Amino acid sequence: MKKKGKFKIRKFTIFTIVLDIFVIAGLVLIQTHSFQSFWIPTAMTTMSHKYLAYTLYSEDKVNEVMNENYIEKPTEKINLDDIVIGDTKEKKYYSSKYEKDLYTRSEGNEVYKIIRLKEKKFKGYLTVIYDPSDVALAVPKKLGKMGASVATLCKQNEGLVGINGGGFEDLDGWGNGSVPYGAIIQNGKLIWNHPGGSGGLIGFTKEHKMYLTDESPTEAIAHGMVDAVEFGPNLIVNGKVAKIHGDGGWGTAPRTVIAQRKDGIVLFLVIEGRLPGYSIGATMNDVIEILLRYKAYNAANLDGGASSTMAVEGKLFNRPSAGGEYGGRTVSNAWIVTNKNNKSARMPTIEK
């Protein structure tokens, strides 16, 4: 009996020592600048988990770190003449494997292609839309009263692929997309305008060129804007990249981005995140790096976090950080890919 008691004491002692080591290591870790720069912006860019930053750090420390992490977005006015919509057919020779991935069609599909992204820290999808006239903005039928999932918005508007768009009221993380933030322009008309929008207008002109502007909705419409949501920040304008200080103040999280190349090809980028062991998420620098691989010329950040969703053929396609069991969160609008000219568009087989 005495030997057994001694064994129990030894096991408890070892457990206590190991626990102390973890506690000490944790206390050391949270004092490092690298961890603070990861933890604080990531928590502060969520709607309902900001308390995680203040649990570990004082208000002064949180403010200090956030002031070190911010984005200087490009300030020059977008030049629509730089976008020349032309031939996007497959080529004989390619400058990089990324260009080859982009131009090489999926079998039986001339409308879009989905490229699976697998990075060290995160996974995601890049949808390539060859004809920018196939891109449209979809909104819920009961805009202002009830949102809809991206998959539902695709079904209601004959969309082949869709991604979430602008932000919405999300009190305590339970927003249902019913009240969008900022302005929404659809078919050349201002259909919604609500305080709280961030960034600027993100959309397309009647010539199907991506238009990023800080103008008022009335001014943007006068300059040819036909579809737009309000969000941001702009990440690339006229080929010039936003200057990211630290991680930009947006932390590491799921992301949704819309972009256009100089040849008119539109890119839908969705990064999965907040899924430990599968995909942590991306910083703004990570997103820009991917966009530059595929030569995005203009690009803007859309609503992220749990709202970052992609639907294909009317079904949720990616793994959102929350709400996947319900088909994805309900949102206030979505950018979708239609097929107005009835081109071949067989659904590609893509690894999930």
What does this entry look like structurally?
- This protein has helices at 2-29, 33-44, 51-56, 59-68, 97-103, 150-156, 217-222, 284-293; strands at 70-72, 112-118, 123-129, 135-138, 148-149, 161-164, 182-186, 189-194, 200-205, 210-213, 225-231, 234-237, 240-241, 243-245, 255-260, 266-272, 298-301, 310-312, 315-316, 330-331, 334-337.
- It has 352 residues and is α+β, with helices and mostly antiparallel strands.
- The chain has two domains: 2-69, no CATH class; 72-337, no CATH class.
- It has a seven-stranded antiparallel sheet with strand order 2-3-16-15-17-12-13, with helices on one face. Strands 4-21-6-18-19 form a five-stranded antiparallel sheet, with helices on one face.
- Strand 9 (200-205) and strand 10 (210-213) form a beta hairpin.
- The chain starts with a helix and ends in a 15-residue tail after the last strand.
- The model has no long low-confidence stretch (mean pLDDT 89).
